[in-house]
Amino acid sequence: MPVGKDSLLDIAIKINNEQQDIKPSSGSQPKERTILILGSKGVRKTSLIHRFLDRNEGAKQTLALEYTFGRRAGKSMVKDVCHIWELGGGTLYPTLLSAPLAAASHDLSHLTVVLMLDLSAPQQLWFTLETLVQKLHMALRQQASVLSGRNAGEFIEKLQEAAWKRVGKDNEDKEYMDPFPVSFVILGGKYDIFQDFDSEKKKVVCRCLRYVAHTLGATLQFYSLKDSGLVKKAKDLLNHHGFGGPPVKSISQDYNKPLLIPAGSDSMQQIGGLGASRTGTISKGPGAAIDRWKHTFTTHFPQETSEKSVMPDDPAKDLNFQEPIIDSLRAQKDDNLLLFFQELERYRQVAERRRHFKNDTDDI
């Protein structure tokens, strides 16, 4: 290379340094959003996440709280990031909600909660729904206190203002609604089983869920892992909340078909039935309307409130969590411990014999 000429490496370093000196415009900054998925046990939350991220790996049972993420390029070459948290165990571990909420606390306006409910087990659905919505409200208020101290109420009010923008400040049912502070989705899973239910039972479930979703300003959508069309719609929904993709525009309110009702698009008049009352909502305690809906639901489907832990007796021996390298090291450690205790037992026996022999000679 002639003197005075830069090598390819020198040119590459120079270009990189120039790019580092250029401050990217706000449009080229990567956007970060967070999705928190929780709900009924065994409703295939992990499988949905894998479908959304186009992963072919087999789904493992979620013991408590798990984190993953996805990256996708938007209109620019910069890849946006979607943080995904999954809370397992149904209603068993609400105290763990503080972790994903703290991680997303830099901008809760970009947090979406997806509550997956097992439509095939209505005898547990209302208990799971009511418990987790209440726990989410508590966790959000606790996080607000951590962030804002004495201004926690003001912090929540700002979230509520954003919530009203999502459902529409001029919504005809405004006086009956209490929108959830962050984006909220109720996703009814195992629709492939639910679709074969008795018509009257399906109607009760659908109307009750529509009322709760509309009151909370939530999107309501049914889903089945065995239906490619419903899988695509669920992926589109998560893509909208996770990567800013286009919103879902179609609506389906027929209880004989999978429901798909975007937030703010339903109405009390269309739901019909028991009417509404502003005296209370599911998230703030008993009220006239929600009590009537709850009574209707639980009369048809008496609730089972006891849940067992999903934690195996010995997670290290669970086939769902095999890790060849770690398992091999663990096996070596177990073998070494076994040899250690065997050697310790032999030493104890020898020491015991020596003690007896010494006692015998002292007697002589």
Lay out the secondary structure:
Blueprint: H1 8-21, E1 32-39, H2 45-52, E2 65-73, E3 79-87, H3 98-103, E4 111-118, H4 122-148, H5 152-167, E5 183-189, H6 191-194, H7 199-216, E6 219-222, H8 228-243, E7 260-261, H9 268-271, H10 288-300, H11 324-363
Parallel strand pairs: 1-3, 1-4, 4-5, 5-6
Antiparallel strand pairs: 2-3, 6-7
Helix pairs in contact: 4-5, 7-10
Name some characteristics of this structure.
364 residues; alpha/beta; seven-stranded mixed sheet; 11 helices; 46% helix
Q: Order of strands side by side in the largest beta sheet?
A: 2-3-1-4-5-6-7
How far is the first residue's CA from the last residue's CA?
99 Å
C-alpha geometry: extended
Number of strands: 7
Number of helices: 11
Order of helices and strands: HEHEEHEHHEHHEHEHHH
Task: Name the beta content range.
Answer: 5-15%
Report the uncertain regions. 20-26, 276-287
What radius of gyration results from the CA coordinates? 28 Å
What number is the mean pLDDT?
Answer: 83
